[in-house]
Structures
1.
Amino acid sequence: MFEFVTAGPPSPWTLFEELESLQSDMNRLLSAPEARPGRRSRTSYPPLNAWTSEEGLTLDAELPGVDPAEVDISVVGDELSLRGKVNVREPAEGETVLRRERPAGEFQRTLQLPFRADTGAVKATFRNGILRIRIPRSEEEKPRKIAIESA
Amino acid sequence: MSETKVMPNEASVPSPESEAVFVPRVDIRETADHFEVVADMPGADDKSVEATVQNRVLTIEGWSCPEKPEGHEPLGQEFGGGRYRRDFTLPDSVEVNGIRARVRNGVLSVRIPKKEDVKARRIQVTG
């Protein structure tokens, strides 16, 4: 029923590394937690899942606790940038922080899309801490059936 | 040793019978009148999250089953659904009956009030 990252088969990282161009990966997380119990020790934030179809690409980003108003998604041509702030809060008066493991700070991730996007039609929803971005292919990149005319 | 703070039980999780359990990352805060445990449980909602207290051990659990988009082929995966679980030992100074939990945007917050007699009080000093 569930898929577990921790106990799964060899992960399909290579696909993702291809998707993510080294030069444009300007990922940055100001205060990465020292202890990351139970999760992979991967530095890129936020973690992403991606799927493709003839229509385009669907991208899920794990961003628990983020304020959607603090997330900026931009798509230019075949490049998608995701940046924002997460868990940036000043301690309340009289409050002591006993433990801090959750990521906090600014993040930015830039991905090379495998196609040129229809930038005007990109849509995003945020539910239970998961941001889902739907990126349609531009019309000229969609597979097209060519009618064969009889001579 | 008697703890006076809310502490995660590192040895207790993941539980031996289930290897595929995520240990949620937590922040723990203390004020004069309560503790607060804040846990990242992306993908979980109020129906799939549980907080229980037994013998001064607080257990938080949650389930995430991300919805995969229809008609798509996977390209890359950096996170998955699954079960979250973590235990915490509570100090004697807390009022277990007053514990309240809520989940919002994939984050569970558990508020643990201190007993009346241990709450720090500000005493008015009169001249």
Note: Confidence is low (pLDDT under 50) at residues 1-19, 21-41 of chain A.
2.
Amino acid sequence: MTTDRRSFLKLAALTAATTAASTAGASSGIDPALAKRMGPGVRWDKAPCRFCGTGCHVQVGVQNNKVVAIAGDVHADVNKGLLCMKGYHVGLILYGEDRLTKPLLRKNGELTPVSWDEALDVIADRVELDPKGFAFYGSGQWTIPEGYAAQKFMKGGIASNHIDPNARLCMASAVTGFIATYGVDEPNGCYQDLDDCDVIITWGNNPAEMHPVLFSRFMDRRSRGEKITLIDMSTRRTRTSAHADHFLRFNPQSDLAIANGILHLLLRNDSWDKDFVEKHVNFRALEADKPSLKGEAMDFEAWKTALDPYTPEYVSEISGVSVEDLHMLADLFGDRDKKITSLWCMGANQHTRGTAMNCLIHGVHLFSGHIGRPGDNPTSLTGQPSACGTAREVGTLAHALPGGRLVAKEPHRTQSEEFWNVPAGRIDPKPGKHTVAMFKSWSTPKSEEGGNIHTIWVQVTNPGQTLPNRNLLMEPGVKDPDKFLICSDVYPTATTEIADLVLPSSMWVEKSGVFGNSERRTQQWFKQVDPPGQARDDCWQIIAVAHKLFERGFEGMKDKDGKFLFHMDNPNGGTFANWDWNRYYDQNVDEHLFEEYRQFTRLKHKDLAPYSEYVKTRGLRWPVVEQPDGTWRETRYRFAEFDDPYVKPGSTHDFYHSTTGDGRAQVWFRPYEAPPEVPDEEYPMWLCTGRVIEHWHSGTMTGRVPQLRGSMPAAYCEINRQDAANLGVSNGDMVVVESRRGAVELPAWIDGRGSPPPGTVFVPFFDERVKINFVTLHEHDPFSKQPDYKKCAVRVRRLEA
Amino acid sequence: MPIVSAVLYTREDKRTDLMKDLRADTRIDVGTIWADRVPVVVDTPDRTQDKAVWRRLEHHPDVLRVELVFADFSDVHQEVS
């Protein structure tokens, strides 16, 4: 680094500190002398990308209070300087023409501007109406401090557990799979696996479109001439399949049979890892009377017998995968010299047997000993930037408390009440309603049984577009005058369209934040530009409502000492008015909340470092453990002695949160079971829904970026050429896709970007003009409560002009 | 080579010793002081020294609280320019 550059950096650092000091006090504005010396130009800072769960690091250039440039960070371990087409355009998501800038209250059917004060009063009124009927629906896009504040507001303040994130629709089955297998959530490996593996297996996963930066690691290795095998298992050909050495198309739901078939062949070929299994594995099955994630012991002989039926021939018949390919998979897992990384995401999770499927993928790796070495791990991916950090780790799920705790466990409630300094017994021991149940209750009249949810506050998500079977879960609530919907968002959406109260929110670098990505990496950023108009941070909205209630004498918003639930000290004594927007950035509220939350993280060895460590780094993977010299060390590989400080010395592998308390992971028997709805004479085709590379989830943000909207302007129905011919459909013809629940109209794309097999259509869900979730199924996994968006029965017909 | 800046929260009437200590350390630059807040930037040759300086500041009797504001991302400028 040159002296000039170093001087520049020092100046920038000092300017930032001086600005922070000045805006924290009564004076405002940058030191004029320093500003002059800095000269005009762009100020650069870091932030994780706003979109998917990969957690790419972005360099954000700001000039005149506006994001003017975006670059990939070459020193970021996650993305090594790369961004995907969405990431390169992430700055533009702030500048759509129709940003929400004022609170809006529905009066006489019209959304009408109101003051923030009135909006906060309306929410406080709804809480006081019946606190137990007030629910919160959040997301894996909440920052960690936001999710933590919402969690504390609901479970520690209102004493209601009716809070759930949209992550319930996205990765809940991954959570239950990890807990059932290892006793603790989240992957043991990390992205480095992609650099070290010999084989990648994608289980119903399309990383070429959904996690393109991770997929580029594979492409990069291949382009350098490295031998790396890609096996893509999917129900339709995708962009990932195009690069695969082996494409194994399977029938919907038959992934369960394939995994059991691999285990069957490992047994038959005597190629399983006996040493690993003997030392580190138990066998498990569901209890017959009351099935749970703990299950009951199954002896090895019984487990073997249960797998007897899963011969290659039987599995081939169910799945459509050839006997040869099933042998190929089993032979790979039987080869200990090969390092295998399995990737999965929505295909295995959005599944009425999602927990089972997750357990089986882990089971195949454990039984074959392909776990715990760099490159040799089962790795689930997430779709949202902080599904792991916020939804899973902060635990904004209806049954959870922060740091892997459960509301049903008395010691967990007691500890949480102590951390929050609220009276004993404040936290309700009964789990709240999960997403589907929450909206079902909201859509059930108050007078009827189960209709007690009267209000839902939605933040950072768009259930109007993404909930399955919307006619069942939303429409009755929209029409019921007793029901009330509050929506905090940045743009008009399918949810704000039906909401009774709309709150304009800050987004991404308009606020400070912390995200946690798919590889346990916690990443921090600072606010870099102001939000437009009256838009305000989601976290502030929560604290401000809490303070309204506190002012009204609502007991739940007081701690044991009578102080405000979100009380924060001023450094010089007295109370920091964190509920006053004009004072909100006087201190770092994120840091206060993060440090409080950090206390929760040690129980399950998800230890986080102090907030200040994340300011200095491009993220750290937990557990982050303080070293004797005062530095903080992250962990790349959990449960492996070479890297995880919590592994018992001399044990090589130690699953130290084992549900059986013996340091062993669980290999489950979970049978193949047919899906709840299959094509029949009336509805003869399968429908699969999903995403496309240009758009992120419901398209609220990417739809405002001209470059992305131009690349993929509208949803389509991807259809097989033969089916199209049979239906008399040509490319671009409008078709009706109809299920027992609803119908949509959209243009056909024959063998479009993907290529569905005969009898299957695919529709992406990003386009709010085509709400495909009127058609999808709300049936869900019994453990994770995650619905299946990947398969239901539909009929397709050409729309006559 | 870390460059880290922060705001030190102090009592306006009790920071003489702190100011003396800050000015005596060549690795530390002090910005324009606003009321009870002292902006500083610390430029050290390695993480160990960086850690030691911040630990000392955090435990200084005149410092009520340290709020980190900026950490060295020199490559950011380098990569983009």
Note: Residues 24-39 of chain A have pLDDT under 50 and may be disordered.
3.
Amino acid sequence: MHEVLFYLFAAMTLLPAVMLVCSRNTVNAAMLMIVSFVGTAALFAMLQAYLLSVLQIMVYAGAVVVLFLFIIMLLDAGRIKSFKGRIKQIIVPLAFFVALSILPVLAILSGRGGEAQVGEAVAPASSAEQFGLLLFTKYQLPFELTGFLLLAAMVGVIFISRRNVSALPKSEGKE
Amino acid sequence: MDWIDLLITLLKAVVVVVIVMTISGYSVVGERKVSSWVQGRVGPNRTTIPLLGSIPVIGKLLTRWGIFQLPADGAKFLFKEEPLPDHVNKFYYNLAPIISFLPPMIILTVLPFGQYVKDGVSSAVALTQTDVGILFVMAVSSLGVYGLILAGWAANSKFPFLGGIRASSQMISYELCIGLSLLPVFMWTGGTLDLFAVVQAQGGVLFGESFGLPKWFIFSQPLSALLYLVALFAETNRLPFDMPESETDLVGGFHTEYGAFKFGLFFVGEYAHMAIGSALFSIIFLGGWSIPFLPLSAYPEGILGAVLSVLVLAAKTIFLIFFYMWIRWTLPRFRYDQVMNLGWKILLPLAVANLVAYAIVMAFMPGL
């Protein structure tokens, strides 16, 4: 039962992820992303990291992708043009992809990968209380730094959107 | 044994879904009745089923109360022609009603409906119990917006699109307020996110016997309750926050292009959302199944106590559903910019201030 569910959710995470990268329709891509996130959340839940799985859905599927969709629809981004004539742009990422996917295969073939560890993997901070305690004691510095990073991003967003306002003719910009 | 357990769980789920769907279905009839009372009309009072309607006294009474309206409406939605406009994106057009209908049904899995006491140990009457209860509810209900956005976008015409865009911005804005208004409650209960524990914390009397208020969070945290209630109205797209639908300026908003059973799904989904929202509000702020001034241990042991507690919660929920309709005909609807102003400039700062104030109070008065 457990194994069947694992493969089901793994497929639910990976297949949409691949389709997302290949999809040309941006709305399709966003929806596939949600399916992939939900699959990841289910995998977290199977590791008994319920808090993490719920946060995964709440933050990524519930908020971030809504904003993506919102922007896709407002800008009417529609379809991405075909890649014809842009082969050069594809070569570098493709090389990265091939290198990254060959490396683990090489590692396994050379016998240094070791046996895959299949064990009772249980997240250390499964309950919300433990999670919060760890966040405010052991991992306080990374936590605060991440907050600072987000603040910087927020200030950047405000700055960029402000500049667009001042670029308008004065009568409109003052509104 | 494994399969039998699975079967029993499935059966329980079916029972819960049937009950909640009946409540949401009858809230549609209730809405029409309440609307008609507010406006001095009679409301639906003629739909009748041939044999049942001609039972001497009861049949007439049921007909007059509009009890038969629900099967009639349901049958109408089912047997109507399913229009599929040419200009829509067929996949998402069909998917959207399902997506908007699913979240309330998923939330049902973690809602505690009552308590079952056996040998002095009380447990929740619920399909499942997790220690991240409220977070689960918020996560799943945040997915509900996709139904509306996709419906608006897939319909591929102007008014639905505007409705979808409004829906997404309204939902994002008010979700913040929901989270922030609930935080003080869960700080008060000592960090647990379990909905059952929240109800357990609300039995008894607030401030000792002399003052005499039920120990419900609506009395100890009135501002949180108000903020949550307002945000809940916005989340369920009920008037005065009916931006996504806006019958007056967007025809029907996101569901303009929908008809027959797909529209029915949106419609019933909205009422299911209302019912679940009301149940949540009663659980978190109205003490769940606690009866005023009585401790939760006053319920008798066994099945009788369980049924009683479920009935008490149902009564509170039904009152709140009525409250939704009452508000609908009491307050005029907002303009779109007013909705955004209210959300970002009034509710959000208030919620943050409320959170900080309660954090300070709880830090200095640990005995609360």
Note: The longest strand of chain B covers residues 114-118.
